[in-house]
Amino acid sequence: MFQADAKKPIGGNIIAHMSTTRLGLRKGRGETRICKVHQSPSLPEAEATFAITPGGIDDAPE
């Protein structure tokens, strides 16, 4: 059985059509977060991991 993609852009269709770069954020393990470039005219589709710490945003632990 297939399910529809439950992800919806914040701001609806107006923001989705006005922006040129679309990023998706999701929670990883622990304090790790993952940012994915979904659509961009100048960047390839890719993912980057990072961690939110008391000191700010840091590289994700390996």
Characterise this structure:
It holds the Pfam family Rad51. One of its GO terms (cellular component) is condensed nuclear chromosome. This is RecA family profile 2 domain-containing protein. One of its GO terms (molecular function) is DNA strand exchange activity. Residues 1-62 form the RecA family profile domain. It is a single chain. The protein has 62 residues and is mainly beta. The protein has a domain at 21-59. It has 1 helix and 4 strands; from the N terminus they run αββββ. The protein has one helix at 12-18, and strands at residues 22-27, 32-39, 47-53, 56-59. β2 and β3 form a beta hairpin. The radius of gyration is 14 Å and the shape is globular. It starts with 11 loop residues before the first helix and ends with a strand.
What does this entry show, briefly?
The radius of gyration is 14 Å and the shape is globular.
What are the SSEs and their pairings?
Layout: H1 12-18, E1 22-27, E2 32-39, E3 47-53, E4 56-59
Antiparallel strand pairs: 1-2, 2-3, 3-4
Main traits of this protein?
globular, 1 helix, 62 residues, 4 strands, four-stranded antiparallel sheet, mainly beta, 11% helix
- Number of helical segments? 1
Percent range for β-strand residues: 35-45%
The percent of residues in helical segments reads: 10-25%
The H-and-E topology, N to C, reads as: HEEEE
Using the CA coordinates, give the radius of gyration: 14 Å
Measured distance between first and last alpha carbons: 35 Å
Major sheet characteristics: 4 strands, antiparallel
Q: What's the rounded overall pLDDT mean?
A: 86
Taken from the alpha-carbon principal axes, the silhouette is globular
The parts where pLDDT drops under 50 for at least 5 residues are none
Number of strands: 4
Strand line-up of the largest beta sheet = 1-2-3-4
Classification by helices and strands: mainly beta
Domain RecA family profile: 1-62
GO molecular function, one term: ATP binding
GO biological process, one term: chromosome organization involved in meiotic cell cycle
InterPro entries: P-loop_NTPase, Rad51_C, RecA_monomer-monomer_interface
